[in-house]
Write a structure and sequence with these properties.
This protein is mostly helical and about 90 residues long. Helix 2 crosses helix 3. It is elongated, with a radius of gyration of 23 Å.
Length: about 90
């Protein structure tokens, strides 16, 4: 039963069932807000070019940067917890 007048659930209209293949392609774009871009840790647009040219080197660099910021000194971590970035 539909209850559209009170904002309740409406009956679903029968249609073809979606398959997993229907979700393989995604073309929508969701641009980041200005405040999100302003607060981004990585805001250099050239980062995409560097990552595309040498993705393994790029991610090694990112991991090294993260490790240094967390005071990682060996197999066991010593030092303060990283906490949220600001």
């Amino acid at each position: 039963m539909a209850d559209d007048s009170a904002g309740g659930p409406a009956e679903a209209t029968p249609g073809p069932a979606a398959t997993i293949e229907d979700y393989f392609s995604e073309d929508r774009v969701f641009p980041a807000s200005e405040s999100f871009r302003h607060d981004a840790v990585l805001s250099d647009p050239g980062i995409y070019e560097r990552a595309e040219v040498d993705w393994t080197g790029f991610w090694a660099e990112q991991a090294g940067s993260l490790a240094r910021s967390c005071d990682v000194t060996g197999p066991g971590r010593s030092g303060p917890s990283p906490g949220p970035r600001r």
